[in-house]
Design brief:
Layout: E1 12-15, H1 19-28, E2 34-37, H2 41-50, E3 52-53, E4 56-57, E5 62-65, H3 68-74, E6 77-80, H4 87-94, E7 103-106, E8 112-113, E9 132-133, H5 135-142, E10 147-152, H6 157-161, E11 166-172, H7 175-185, E12 190-195, H8 198-220, H9 224-246, H10 250-253, H11 256-265, H12 272-281, H13 286-292, H14 299-313, H15 318-328, H16 333-342
The structure holds nicotinamide-adenine-dinucleotide (NAD) and SN-glycerol-3-phosphate.
């Protein structure tokens, strides 16, 4: 295994220079030099020559490369900031260059499927928990890395880029991952909390996207703040039950990465998931909305996976189930709302 000198360890690696990757790379660059990986040569050139990418400013202490080996050789702390749909491809590209000394933190709020060749979600009768992977589980499965963490919280990238105050959670089984994340990212404008329940924190960030799509739909219909309060509180209860069934703790859902991010995403016109719901409610077909979006709305893939899991686990998750039918089975939003208003929820909080 190659050894590393202490001076080399100061350079921090970031994989993926989309909205969130750029925001995080810029924050990291306030304290350490940063090397970012982008797969396209023209993006690498743009970052190195103009210190911008896709119209966003890039900190002058950030260099770019399209060589995964260089990134892994020069950085022993890596932040992976790519959408879940690209995760297996990206992780497998980096896996040959990763060693157990690497420390990896990811910021992806999506799920992946661990299926056999030729299997698809549609073909599976019962989707088991072990066939669903959070991104930390993908990293652990595909690489020799051990010290893995996630970063999740109310972190709309457009606000981070403006330097507005915010906070996040770094979750890991390893305290040193949390401490490194805090050391690298904490600033006067950015607070970093720790949590040892990595699965619960990942699931919180993943599941709130479903509720955010529903919140966008309510806003698109102009149904007001009472309805939103109702959705957010019932959405939180649904997230708790789904997260518990998938291996997360109640505490993580009611913390910053759960309720904190839920409130933010359900209220932000900058949220891609909220925007999908809003445009659906205005009458646009889902395919048209997704085709016109350059950035990923993770909730769409998440709801397919979670809906399949709900059936296997025998759970009831009325918001998720009804939203799935709106998105994929032609149920009208108004009909879904009527169904939810008649649903016999009777206990307010049933998980403590
Ligand atoms: N944007 C936000 O406000 C925000 C905040 C918190 C978390 N997140 C999460 O971060 C993740 C990324 O979101 P984003 O907003 O940066 O998305 P984005 O669509 O803006 O950017 C995705 C980046 O990944 C890169 N990428 C995609 N496929 C790739 C591949 N096969 N190989 C290499 N690179 C590839 C793209 O080139 C792009 O740079 C998502 O899971 C999202 O939920 C986003
Ligand atoms: O734009 P969204 O909907 O992916 O949400 C972004 C972040 O998850 C907010 O914390």
């Amino acid at each position: 295994m190659p050894s590393k000198s202490s001076s080399e360890t100061q350079m921090i690696g970031v994989v993926g220079m989309g909205s969130f990757g750029t925001a995080v790379a810029n924050m990291l660059a306030e304290k350490n030099p940063v090397l970012v990986y982008a797969r396209k040569e023209e993006v690498v050139r743009e970052i190195n020559e103009t210190h911008t990418t896709s119209g966003r400013k890039v900190h002058p202490d950030i260099l770019a490369t399209f060589d995964p080996e260089e990134l892994c050789r020069r950085c022993n702390i890596l932040f992976f900031m790519v959408p879940s749909a690209a995760y297996f491809e990206v992780i497998r590209k980096f896996a040959p260059f990763l060693y157990p000394y690497h420390l990896i933190i990811h910021g992806t709020k999506g799920l992946a499927l661990n299926l056999e060749e030729g299997q698809t979600l549609e073909k599976i009768e019962k989707l088991k928990r072990e066939q669903i992977l959070t991104m930390s589980e993908v990293i652990l499965q595909e690489t020799v890395a051990v010290r893995v963490g996630c970063l999740a919280g109310p972190n709309i990238s457009t606000e981070l880029i403006l330097g507005h105050p915010a906070a996040t959670v770094i979750a890991s089984h390893y305290n040193e991952v949390i401490l490194e994340g805090q050391r690298l990212l904490r600033s006067e404008r950015f607070q970093v909390y720790g949590n040892s329940d990595i699965i619960g924190v990942e699931l919180s960030g993943v599941l709130k996207n479903i509720i955010a799509i529903a919140a966008g739909a309510l806003a698109g219909l102009g149904l007001g703040e009472n309805a939103k309060g109702l959705l957010i509180s019932r959405g939180m209860v649904e997230m708790v039950h789904l997260s518990k069934a998938l291996g997360g703790s109640v505490q993580s859902v009611i913390g910053l990465a759960g309720v904190g991010d839920l409130v933010t995403t359900c209220n932000s016109v900058h949220s891609r998931n909220f925007t999908v719901g809003y445009r659906l409610a205005k009458g646009e077909p889902l395919a048209q909305i997704l085709n016109s979006m350059e950035e990923v709305a993770e909730g769409i893939n998440t709801i397919r996976i979670v809906n399949a899991f709900i059936k296997t686990a025998g759970l009831r998750a009325p918001i998720t189930e009804n939203l799935y039918r709106v998105l994929f089975e032609d149920l009208q939003i108004e009909e879904a709302l009527q169904f939810l208003m008649k649903y016999p929820f009777s206990v307010d909080v049933d998980f403590v």
